[in-house]
């Protein structure tokens, strides 16, 4: 294993760990939308790690499906709805949670299998992520308005890095990045930071709103 692949595996383990830890933490807060979505990321990265170490194609297919799930629906729709617990006091029922995930799974099945979506798919991912970024900007505003300026800045960093990943995932490529190892290392590290930052920003806004 060369040094670049080793760094990629390290970034994969980092995202696996952060998504697992903070997914469980969100489940403990009874925010099942964010908790389960982060565990989907755990499933994706654990299978990615298996693929990197062994080349197992089944693991790659599982990781690919979970990645499409999170990019298309899991983060732009489900995670946004989860964050709305502290921005809009949105508390969906268990049945609504199940509907969110069932619809996202069905939508993902179309994304990965229907030939007619192949060409517009990269633009769909960017559109969905950009809509999520608009919400993140509002989330940062709410944090700043509540006096949580440090967390607000952290969320803006999440927004900028996430948009960079979204646009360079399918539409552009890092120069001199054969095999896209540098890109995937950057993307996995960005998502690890996102998982951690959003958890603590969520808690900060929740406490600020409760105090108010």
Short description:
The chain has one domain: Rhopdopsin 7-helix transmembrane proteins, CATH 1.20.1070. Helix content is 84%, strand content 0%.
Description:
This protein has 212 residues and is mostly helical. It has a single domain, classed as Up-down Bundle (Rhopdopsin 7-helix transmembrane proteins). The chain is built from seven helices and no strands. The N and C termini lie far apart (53 Å). 37% of the residues are buried.
Poorly predicted segments: none
Which fold name fills CATH's third level, the topology? Rhopdopsin 7-helix transmembrane proteins
Number of discrete domains: 1
Please tell me what the overall shape is: globular
How many H/I helical runs?
7
Beta percentage is under 5%
- CATH class, anyone? Mainly Alpha
Helix-strand pattern:
HHHHHHH
Provide the CATH architecture.
Up-down Bundle
Average pLDDT over all residues: 95
Q: Please give the alpha-carbon distance between the first and last residues.
A: 53 Å
Helical/strand content category: mainly alpha
**Percent helix:** over 70%
């Amino acid at each position: 294993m060369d040094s670049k692949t080793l760094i990629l595996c390290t970034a994969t383990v980092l995202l696996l760990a952060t998504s697992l830890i903070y997914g469980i933490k969100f489940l403990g807060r009874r925010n099942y939308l964010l908790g389960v979505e982060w565990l989907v990321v755990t499933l994706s990265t654990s299978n990615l790690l298996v693929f990197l170490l062994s080349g197992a194609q089944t693991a790659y297919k599982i990781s690919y499906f979970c990645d499409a799930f999170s990019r298309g629906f899991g983060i732009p729709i489900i995670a946004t709805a989860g964050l709305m617990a502290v921005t809009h006091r949105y508390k969906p029922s268990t049945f609504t949670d199940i509907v969110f995930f069932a619809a996202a799974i069905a939508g993902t099945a179309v994304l990965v299998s229907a030939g007619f979506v192949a060409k517009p798919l990269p633009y769909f991912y960017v559109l969905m992520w950009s809509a999520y970024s608009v919400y993140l900007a509002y989330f940062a505003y709410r944090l700043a308005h509540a006096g949580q300026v440090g967390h607000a800045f952290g969320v803006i960093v999440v927004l900028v890095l996430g948009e960079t990943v979204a646009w360079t995932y399918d539409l552009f490529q890092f120069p001199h990045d054969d095999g896209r190892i540098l890109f995937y290392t950057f993307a996995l590290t960005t998502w690890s930071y996102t998982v951690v930052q959003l958890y603590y920003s969520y808690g900060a806004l929740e406490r600020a709103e409760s105090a108010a």
